[in-house]
Amino acid sequence: MTDRFVSELNKKDVDLDISLRPSKFRDFVGQTKIKDQLELFVDAARGRDDVLEHVLFSGPPGLGKTTLANILSDAMGTHLKATSGPVISKPADLAGILTNVERGDIVFIDEIHRLPKTVEEYLYSAMEDFVLDIMIDQGPNARSVRLNLQKFALVGATTRSGLLTAPFRSRFGVALRVDYYPPEDLRQIITRSARILDIDIDADGALEIARRSRGTPRIANNLLRRVRDYAQVRAGNRITLDVADKALTLLNIDRHGLDEMDKRILETIMHKFSNRPVGVASLAVSVGEEADTIEEVYEPFLIQEGYLKRTPQGRVVTDLCFARFGLKSAAAQGELPL
Fold first, then answer.
1. Considering 66, 78, 216, 240, which one is annotated as catalytic?
2. Distance CA 217, CA 152 (A)
3. Cα distances (Å, whole numbers) of residue 127 to 133, 153, 219
4. Fewer Cβ atoms within 10 A, N terminus or C terminus of the chain?
5. Any catalytic annotation for residue 159?
6. Which candidate in 67, 78, 158, 159 is catalytic?
């Protein structure tokens, strides 16, 4: 009985996550230029009774790349076949997906930069000519078989577009970068999510959560749930500016959106390394975090907000960072004490 209850709760959480994702362009908040371009491409393709161009979305995690892929599928009136780069380990895995698509279907590959190079090369002919050449048997009996594919649209999402090879990247007809959201857009997203989750929140409370969400809708929705928990237990089930501030302070998220790991990274560079350039490997060891996580999750926001700089020698913090921590800049005070 307990296992069944836990299973039902987990299913409810998954369904709730899906329900927060908009399914139409009109419900998708922010990224106006990207949305306008995609709507244009969809209308043009449907007007010609053609298949959508291959699309590559790049940008930090949690900004809506997967959501946009689902919206594209809905707008085109086709099926979405979703997978991810690490799952496709050999060409046979790719063949299993592509031979089952129907004309116009969208094949969505998340973290596409993690595709093995051999699989990536098989995609070249699939994307351009809609054929797949696979090898059967080995040694003297090996032979190549060409499989004709239905015309499909490949939609890829990546947090590290620089890891894609130039030949692969050039085969995408549309390449779009998804950027961080301003607080006002996040406020609208939080208000919509609160309405779906039946949470009582005022405009100031929603804006306060938005300001501390690192420009990321996924983080905004996660924080909304945590603030909801605080409001339920300590604030009469209503989220106001004061309630949001107290809840987020309890979660160690300051008024600039910096969490505990952000502060640890910046303070480590300022104090342990005296703001001398430091490589990401040394920084990762010092803060107890994986180098990839620092590069993909923390650095983009810190650089975007002007707290951190990448130099040819390594990472250094900016004068704004010193000001946020109430310190004089390195130039003004000389080297910081170790």
1. 66
2. 29
3. 12, 8, 34
4. N
5. yes
6. 159
The phi-psi region of residue 314 (left if phi > 0; otherwise alpha if psi is between -120 and 50; otherwise beta) is: left
pLDDT band at 280 (very low <50, low <70, confident <90, very high): very high
Whole-angstrom CA distances from 173 to 38, 51, 227, 228, 310 are 12, 12, 42, 42, 31
How crowded is residue 86: how many other Cβ atoms within 10 Å of its Cβ? Answer: 11
State yes or no: is 262 an active-site residue: no
Among residues 81, 187, 212, 218, the one annotated as catalytic is 218
Q: Which of 220, 201, 200 is nearest to 212 (CA)?
A: 220
pLDDT at position 228, please? 95
Q: Which of 78, 105, 110, 324 is catalytic?
A: 110
Average pLDDT, the chain: 88
pLDDT > 90: percent of the chain? 69
Is residue 66 annotated as a catalytic residue, yes or no? yes
Write out the two tokens for 15.
Answer: 């369904």
Residue 93 appears among annotated catalytic residues: no
